[in-house]
Amino acid sequence: MNAERARTEISPGTALMSMTGFGFHQHQDDQAVYRCEIRSVNSRYLEVQVRTPRHLMSLEPILINAVKSRVERGKVDVFIECVPAKKDQVPVGLGANLKEYLDLYSNAEKQVRHQGLSVSPLDLRSLLSDLGMGPCGESKSPGAAQGLDPEEVQEKFQPGILTCLEKALDRHHESRAAEGKSLGLSLAEPLGKLKNHLKSLLEQLESIRLVLKNVHKKRLDTAIDALVTSLDPQLLKSREERLLMELALLADKQDIAEEITRLGIHLDQVERMLGGGPHQLAPKGGQGRKLDFMCQEMFREINTMSNKLLQIEVLGLTIEMKQQVEKIRQQVQNIE
Q1: What is the spatial distance between Cα 23 and Cα 37, in angstroms, rounded to a whole number?
Q2: What pLDDT digit, counting tens, does each position of 308-320 carry?
Q3: Which of 11, 71, 190, 228 could form a disulfide with 275 if both were Cys (CB 3.0 to 4.6 A apart)?
Q4: What is the pTM of this model?
């Protein structure tokens, strides 16, 4: 392994996307003022929840599909608010019935006062709340009048809401990209250490093989000495040849060269996925699951090596390598 490969650099332009992000946008048209807030955290799959005023619930499937077209993985919560474009605009659902509601409340107030009871002055905001009507006709109770059917709601509010959502998704994307860039930079250190440890193992490979050979030879000599007194020379010779063959097979099984080679391949692939190295892969969505799988494979190779090794100082090196893989795994858990 060349020395220059021991240092890992993550390209500044690497387009890793974090699953954690936030986006907000406010949009206004002739119908209303719309506010959209998007929050997302990491998750194994894509989960989208949209919360809208009750009278806009017919738009939720459309809004969910719009989010899914921009996000591949994570738990995404979308909050939509809708308020009248003008302060003096009468909320949808009241219209010409407003005078009737006001008269009813006025008559009720007079009857209460006639009985000598105190009552608070009539407040329009309280009236709307009691009627179950919120901004833009939001219904706060199942039985409240809606004023518009689902088709009219889509025709009236859908363009403004979708515009607001797309802008909020742009901000959300920027937030996730910034977080993804930070994740990529934080991965550079453990990857570099892991490659340095692998280089050190490769440099010690011959000495590791020699230690294993001496250990097995010592065990073989002890076994042969035990057989000398109990077997005739001819039988002893055949047994010794068989033991030497077994020793060669055992040494081959405990050799870690294959694990070192595979671990190096995994590291190179991870580096390419992150946008580094001479043959970098174009970063795209869904890298998080692939990187998580590569971490599992690297951990498996290191664990196999540690089971084969006998030298304490080399075993300590594999423990350090496991720690670096775990650091990488924790970071990639948040990559889309």
Answers
A1: 6
A2: 887 787 888 899 9
A3: 11
A4: 0.66
